[in-house]
């Protein structure tokens, strides 16, 4: 059944295959908060705008316990709610976190943050241009796994951290547990196919949000498309336009000017 579907994934120039050899997928991003957000408030994870309780596969509760035990003890959620969610604190859920300099509170929109500051190199754990000193002042470990574990040590550590307004952060989230080749969830000692339980439009949706205010900073949606649909679209786009036909774009022709004899 899996061979009837395609998942389109694009890896940008900052993707480093050497550091993702056992990784099924990766979400890398650059963040410049427009306001300061408490470390305990910023979460990263999955949610839906509609109920999915009728599509939850047997064994999900077992899988969730395995995830909390072996992968992310900070994960919390309610998949049976009208708007189901599974969130972990960003500081312990994100695999790689790099803290950069203060660049202003409007980022790329104002031109204060240029592409050279974002960079194309692979994201590495640590800090630079003041970011490393900030980490050291808070006694945050330098290694990624140690930093994740450190922030799971209590709310007081999360409260000491501030996602500062106007500071540049780079982050990378990844894991080897979702196998898109087989559309399966593979956990330590547990595995099941998920394709038969998918439905709706948002098949896998990741969000970064402030849980206290509900403000969403960004959304990433992985969309599963039937292979037949992709093949049909590719065929249609490769065919030459037939003579005497035209496509309507939904926008008026800017060069069009009415003539006097166009009107009765």
Mean pLDDT: 75
Quaternary status: single chain
Strand order, main sheet: write it out. 5-6-4-14-15
End-to-end Cα distance: 60 Å
Shape call: globular
Largest sheet: 5 strands, antiparallel
The helicity comes to 10-25%
The beta-strand count equals: 16
Helix and strand element order: EEEEHEEHEHEHHHEEEEEEEEH
The Rg value, from CA coordinates, equals: 23 Å
Q: What share of the residues does DSSP label as strand, in percent?
A: 25-35%
Q: Count of DSSP helices?
A: 7
Structural class comes to alpha+beta
Q: Extract low-pLDDT stretches.
A: 4-15, 241-264
List keywords for this structure.
264 residues; alpha+beta; five-stranded antiparallel β-sheet; four-stranded mixed β-sheet; 28% strand; globular; disordered C terminus
Q: What can you see in these coordinates?
A:
The protein has helices spanning 60-70, 90-93, 115-118, 131-137, 144-151, 155-160, 227-238, and strands spanning 5-7, 25-31, 37-38, 42-47, 76-78, 85-89, 96-102, 126-127, 162-163, 167-175, 178-179, 184-187, 190-193, 204-210, 216-222, 224-226. With 264 residues, it is α+β, with helices and mostly antiparallel strands. Strands 5-6-4-14-15 form a five-stranded antiparallel beta sheet. A four-stranded mixed beta sheet has the order 2-10-7-8, with helices on one face. A hairpin with a 6-residue loop joins strand 5 (76-78) and strand 6. The longest helix is centred in the C-terminal third of the chain and has 12 residues, at 227-238. The protein starts with a strand and ends in a 26-residue tail after the last helix. Mean pLDDT is 75; it is low at 4-15 and 241-264.
């Amino acid at each position: 059944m899996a061979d009837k579907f395609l998942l389109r994934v694009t890896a940008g120039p900052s993707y480093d295959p050497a550091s993702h050899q056992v990784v099924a997928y990766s979400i890398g991003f650059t963040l410049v908060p427009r306001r300061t957000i408490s470390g305990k408030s910023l979460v990263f994870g999955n949610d839906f705008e509609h109920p999915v309780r009728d599509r939850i596969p047997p064994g999900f509760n077992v899988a969730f316990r395995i995830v909390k035990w072996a992968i992310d003890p900070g994960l919390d959620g309610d998949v049976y709610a009208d708007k189901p969610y599974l969130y972990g604190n960003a500081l312990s859920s994100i695999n790689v976190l790099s803290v950069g300099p203060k660049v202003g509170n409007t980022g790329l929109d104002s031109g204060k943050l240029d592409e050279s500051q974002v960079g194309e190199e692979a994201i590495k754990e640590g800090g630079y241009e003041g970011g490393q000193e900030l980490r050291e002042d808070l006694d945050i470990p330098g290694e990624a796994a140690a930093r994740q574990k450190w922030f799971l040590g209590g709310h007081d550590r999360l409260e000491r951290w501030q996602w500062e307004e106007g500071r540049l952060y780079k982050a990378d989230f990844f894991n080897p547990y979702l196998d898109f080749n087989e559309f399966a969830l593979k956990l330590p000692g547990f595995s099941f196919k998920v394709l038969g339980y998918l439905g709706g439009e948002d098949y896998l949706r990741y969000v970064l949000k402030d849980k206290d205010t509900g403000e969403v900073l960004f959304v990433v949606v992985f969309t599963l498309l039937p292979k037949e649909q992709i093949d049909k679209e590719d065929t249609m786009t490769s065919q030459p336009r037939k003579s005497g036909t035209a496509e309507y774009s939904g926008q008026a022709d800017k060069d069009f000017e009415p003539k006097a004899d166009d009107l009765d």
